[in-house]
Amino acid sequence: MKILIIEDEPIAAQRMQMMLKQYDASIEIMGCLETVEDSVNWLQANPHPDLLLLDIQLTDGFSFDIFKKITYKKPVIFTTAYNEYALEAFRYLSIDYLLKPVTFQTLQQALNKYKLITNQPEFNYTEIFKVLKKLPSEQYKERFLARIGHKLIFVKTCDIAYFRAEDKIVYLIDKQANRLPVDYSLEKLEAVLDPRNFFRLNRKIIIAIDSIAQIKPYPNSRLILCLKGFQKSEEIIISRDRVPEFRQWAEQ
Prior knowledge:
alpha/beta
């Protein structure tokens, strides 16, 4: 079994290597990486391992960003000090989600699960998860608490046009163009919003598919979104590198 470790805490990475060898001395550890950037570069330049063991929060961002930049079709085991990203982890080829500090027992159980799944005849992990990702989940948020002055109000998710990050504050913009601050980062929102209905366009915006009126070509192979019920000033440009993934999302 070939395993790549992605972990930005040297002590945790070293401990993980020791536990892997304790579990099975024949395991080949292909490397230990610390950042999203290094991980993307490594996976682009090398054969993919049988299994990824990766921390969710890395020095330069979230490890989920790795899968937005490369195509990876092998199993993953996530590790993290927080339990709030479990749903987001499930959207990738995750077979387990281990809370830190990872113990030998929990790692052993996860690796046993990996062996059980991958040793099945007619096993096709990618096809299984294509189906699972399309299934509805009751865990996605149906409403948000937003602030208006000193008051808090409920906003149904279906009434949201998009989210925008500005000056370290994230605003919920509803379909009536009201701007309401919410206590979420865009990364946390990605984990609790239904990916069939919401798409992260860039570092500042997550859009709801129901709010899009038109999609038009824009110079330099970009796209521009016209939103329902909004003025032209609310048109949103999609960068060229995000266009292919946006098209795939829009057509699913």
